[in-house]
Design a protein that fits this description.
heterodimer, A: alpha+beta, 2 domains, four-stranded antiparallel beta sheet, B: about 300 residues, alpha+beta, membrane (chain A), Electron_Trans/Redox (chain A), iron (chain A), 4 iron, 4 sulfur cluster binding (chain A)
């Protein structure tokens, strides 16, 4: 329950809760105490930090392969008319089974105030899929804009390193404001206002039906991310992330943090799209020896790839099995 | 609880002036971002509110000629209707239509809907009911209503025949010709005509073709009788959509003029096939058979 509440707080935009001393389990307290008594030496930390450079790309490669495979499957299915995966990311049919993007379905339902059976089927199917697979997993494993944004992010980080650009942060709560406003606008105006500027929908359709003028908007958003604010769309704007995040609060697939071997170098937070979810890796923050990372996490696996001490892992809650 | 309250408050009090300034700036930036993004998305409403996004829509679109709100709001912009159309008549709208972006439309002059899928595949493919399932037959659709916009361009009115490819050799559009292939549409350019008096708009009208098919089925006799009896509504035969009527003229030239009848569904094949450019006959999306109440 506390996981769900904490996930909602973080999805809303609040800072992760710092556990009060009394909330920290005796085992975790012992770990924190031991680390305080016998801190890692500079050499030990340097040793671990040296490993960051050779961080594995295992999860990134799997993720990119999955993301590209799914999006290309749409294209191939249409181009060769094999009817495997018809439609676009907003709504599709996989071998005849309806699927609907949860946020698009929500916008359409709020605007139209009616849901036909096919849309109900598609929405429920997709809810079940992401309940099993982790909610915001959609963002990093499926959303085609995410990949473009990741490349833009590399460019941003490169330019930032050279001191040419700098990352300006926004208040994360602004995403919840967007979520509310877009929902109210759909309800009030009767038009799916967010879909007009949804880069996910635009990129998906551009891939399948050919690019158009709308891609200029996507380009502008990418430029904004490169030159002004790192990953701004996914971090501060996109309501799709919240919709899937809410589903993810009750998903068993999570990233788990094990405090014992963590050197607290903080490299995981530097690579993360949503670094606040990893505040738990800050020294002394873990309330238990094992903590599940909140549902705002996109399960992209970048932190797992970069972590030299294996302190971050995928887990399926209840199966007790680490991937 | 009291512990937390205690541990939280001092943190807030001890914000340095620099942090306060940073927070203030972040708040301002976030407000500007919110206003900016909302503003841009609201600009997208302008074309639809002004009616600039109105277009010929696929069969079954839930709209009235002048009000597309239900259609625009219920469409999930996935393009499944685009994918199933055998003649590729359906396209997705561009960003210049604002909130209409990604919504399907038909440019009849480029490629009209000739119902060669027979079963209204786009309607069946639609996951949200934006193309309503309440539609059973092509004759039930209300996409628009044909009108003779440029009578002086009309070959039949001029008393002229037509010989050759209706839209020239490079025209990529497709139509289904029963006498060539009952199931698959072929390029219009592969089907040259030789007509004493041009009647392409009537000859290619899917509704008129359907009426001919129904008549043939009825003429086929007893073995089809049960099926004929089971047919519902106006499906077979549907009401006439277009006909050529003779014009009385003094010059002795035989002239005919196309007259649009209440069976017209506005599919756009007449606009597509009409040889002159711009075409003599076009689809008026501001009308349909119901609003016009019969013969035009």
């Amino acid at each position: 329950m506390s996981y769900i509440i904490e996930s909602f707080r973080q999805l809303y935009g609040s800072d992760p809760r710092r556990p009060a001393k009394t909330d920290i389990s005796p085992e975790a307290q012992k770990v924190h105490f031991d680390k305080k008594q016998k801190p890692y030496t500079k050499e030990e930390i340097a040793e671990v930090e040296a490993l960051h450079a050779q961080g594995s790309k295992k999860w990134r490669n799997r993720r990119w392969a999955t993301l590209i495979f799914i999006n290309v499957l749409f294209l191939v299915s249409y181009y060769f008319d094999i009817q495997l995966l018809e439609g676009a990311l907003t709504a599709s049919r996989f071998m005849g089974f309806h699927m609907a993007d949860l946020n698009s379905a929500l916008q359409v339902t709020l605007a139209f105030k009616h849901m036909v059976l096919n849309l109900v089927i598609g929405t429920v199917t997709v809810i079940v899929i992401w309940l099993l697979l982790g909610g915001r997993t959609f963002c990093s494993w499926v959303c085609p804009y995410h990949l473009l944004s990741e490349w833009a992010e590399s460019l941003h980080l490169f330019l930032a390193k050279k001191g040419i650009v700098k990352d300006r942060t926004f208040n994360r709560k602004v995403r919840s404001v967007f979520y509310l406003l877009f929902a109210l606008l759909a309800l009030g105006t009767g038009y799916t206002v967010f879909e007009t500027i949804s880069v996910t929908g635009i990129v998906s359709r551009a891939l399948i039906y050919g690019p158009g003028v709308a891609m200029i908007w996507v380009g502008l958003v990418l430029l904004f991310e490169v030159f002004y604010s790192r990953r701004a769309w996914c971090r501060y704007v996109c309501p799709i992330g919240i919709t899937y995040g809410v589903v993810g609060t009750i998903s068993p697939l999570r990233v788990k943090f094990l405090v014992k071997d963590c050197h607290h170098e903080g490299e995981c937070r530097k690579v993360c799209l949503v670094p606040h979810v990893l505040d738990v890796t800050i020294k002394g923050r873990a309330a238990h020896t094992e903590v599940d990372v909140s549902a705002d996490c996109t399960r992209c696996g970048m932190c797992i790839d970069i972590c030299p001490t294996n302190s971050l892992r995928f887990e399926i809650k209840g199966l007790g099995k680490h991937l | 609880m009291s512990d937390q309250a205690k541990s939280k408050k001092p943190v807030k009090r001890h914000l340095s002036p620099k942090q306060i300034e940073q927070n203030r700036r972040e708040f301002l930036r976030s407000s500007v971002l919110a206003v900016g993004v909302m503003g841009i998305s609201l600009v997208g409403l302008l074309p639809v509110v002004q009616g600039k996004s109105l277009a010929l829509r696929p069969p079954g679109a839930i709209k009235t000629p002048s009000d597309e709100q239900d259609f625009l709001s219920s469409c999930i912009k996935c393009g499944q209707c685009v994918q199933v159309c055998p003649v590729n008549a359906i396209k997705l709208a561009e960003l210049d239509t604002g909130a209409g972006v990604g919504v399907p439309f038909i440019d009849a002059r480029d490629q009209a809907c000739d119902f060669s899928c027979d079963g209204l595949q786009c309607v069946l493919a639609c996951p949200t009911g934006a193309l309503t399932h309440d539609l059973d037959y092509p004759a039930d659709t209300r996409m628009g209503f044909a009108k003779v916009a440029e009578p002086r361009k009309c070959l039949a009115i001029q008393g002229k025949g037509f010989k050759g490819q209706a839209r020239g050799p490079d025209y990529p559009g497709l139509l289904r010709y029963d006498d060539v292939d009952r199931w698959n549409p072929i390029p219009v350019a592969d089907y040259p005509y030789d007509l004493a008096l041009c009647d392409l708009c009537v000859r290619q009208c899917p509704i008129e073709i359907r009426i001919t098919q129904c008549a043939a089925a009825d003429a086929a006799g007893d073995k089809n009788k049960d099926r004929v009896a089971q047919r519902q509504g106006n499906e077979c035969p549907p009401k006439h959509a277009i006909a050529l009527e003779p014009i009385v003229s003094d010059d002795g030239i035989k002239r005919m003029k196309p007259v649009i009848l209440e069976g017209c569904v506005g599919c756009g094949v007449c606009e597509m096939i009409c040889p002159p450019d711009p075409p003599a006959i076009v689809i008026d999306i501001m009308q349909d058979a119901d609003t016009i109440g019969g013969v035009s």
